[in-house]
Amino acid sequence: MARLNPNAVADPPVSVPPQPMNTPSVRRARGARRATAAGIGWLFVAPALVVYAIFVLHPLLLTFQYSMYKWDGIGPSTWVGFNNYTELFRDPDLFGSILNAFKLIIFFSFIPVTLGLLIASTIRRIAQSRLALVARTVLFLPQVIPLVAAGITWSWLLASPGVINQALSAIGLGDLTRAWLGDFSTALPAVGVIGAWVLVGLCTLLLLAGMTKIEPALYEAARLDGAGPVREFFSITVPSLRQEIGVCVTVTVIAALASFDIVYVSTQGGPGNATMVPGLEIFYLAFTQREVGTASALAVVLMVLVLLCVLPIQRFTRDGTR
Amino acid sequence: MIVARREAMTGRVLLVLLMLITVVPFISLFVTALHPSGTYPSGLSWPSHPHWGNFADAFRAANMGELILSSTFIVLGVVPISLLLGTMAGFAFGHLRMPGHRFGFLLFVLGLTLPFEGIITPLYYQVRDMGLLNTRWAIILPLIGLFMPFAVLWMRAHFVNMPDDLSEAARIDGANVWQLFWRVHVPLAKPAISSLGILLFLWTWNQFLLAIVLVDDPAKRTMAGALGAFQGQWGTDIPLLCAGSLLILAPTLIIFLIFQRRFVAALLQGSIKG
Known about the structure:
heterodimer, A: 322 residues, 2 domains, 14 helices, 2 strands, B: 274 residues, MetI-like fold
């Protein structure tokens, strides 16, 4: 990628010697100096750009290329145009995986952000207390451990002899107990709960950090005007946190659409295809079923969907800050 | 005043509840790990004879010593190089602002929201053609590339806020651009660099997808990738699996608890900037 700018290679990273100020060639010298500066600038970027180009941009372009072919990864490939894409929308299993990713947004994004908002606004007043400091550490634990570990832990909690069922029986809801991840109707929400557990702490702390920046006078004024906690929440807290909410939604929506680790260890996409998500489907298609073309088409769709979801959120938050 | 106190009270209760929900899975993991291996202990119950030996068994079964070494090697390959390359590029985009810097920066921003699954298929064939499959380089090199958008964005955000006067002063003293970067700006950027380092360490150590696709031998993977293999092998022996999982997530947990302040700050900033 360094060849983007031929000067970058030609110019050595040496200092520009001080130019005599009053010679006629001062203009030319300045021009040369600017060119050298540009060269040096690009030299600083070059190593990062090279690695990025080889291991991200190049495979990115290849994904588009592969998506136009039918290929088993070994033999010759045949050009099929957009057939792989139409297959994505015609095959209910493939399309179902995309739908599942959107259903996961409810659990990965909507629940953590809503809960985070409610919790953060309740604990706003005790944000500086010792308890809150301890909570900062504890709530971050799910962010620190590998998602795979979260998946394994929760598959055990949600299993028939697990803690969830034990708790349900204890409060007299024994009828509800089941193998949550093995039941067609509850598997996807159960996977969602794992994601919500991972993300709710992060959202709470991010929003709390944002709330400490809100002028306390605003709240006092609202109280004097007779606003209750609910009114306060919708008129002051939510509008002031536009940027933080945007960040939470962006991070969690990407986590939902691109989920892989948790599903891989907890259900492997099953039962049936009940919890199949695009990330996992790409993995199976490319490396087990050897349908590289279809896998790549799904990869392209996934990347486009992420962009389509993230860009409007970014715009929404930017408007608020300017 | 009464209202405020009642609110503080509900806040406290809610916070404790949330912390409990966060911690219960870890407790369940721990308690289950103490049951006799091969049994199906139900729910949260303290075993009559805690089998502490399960941890030793899991340590051996998971080949923990080798795993820690492997993960450390991968982290040492990824993090310092990513920091150096990201800082250099961030410096150029944020401070030198040479012609074309906007376009160059945009190219990196493009990769910011990229799900790794999006490029994993071609990456596999590319790494295979380079002859790196099943080596640790298969994880190290692509990860450096994949971390570049975030690292560059992060460091640019730091350098954009550095005053230009600083560089002017150094230039007058006769420093060239590299000296300006290495002697003046890098030392000042240390907090930003170390926070970035923490995030990259975490993301490398916990990397799963690249590990299971590009490296077959669990002993050459990251910790998270090895955990996947461990589950496949010992998935039916629940106590052993729980013990192994705890061991595998222990290193990050310990490092997190030691550096928790930095971690929390880095993670909060990380999400804002990302």
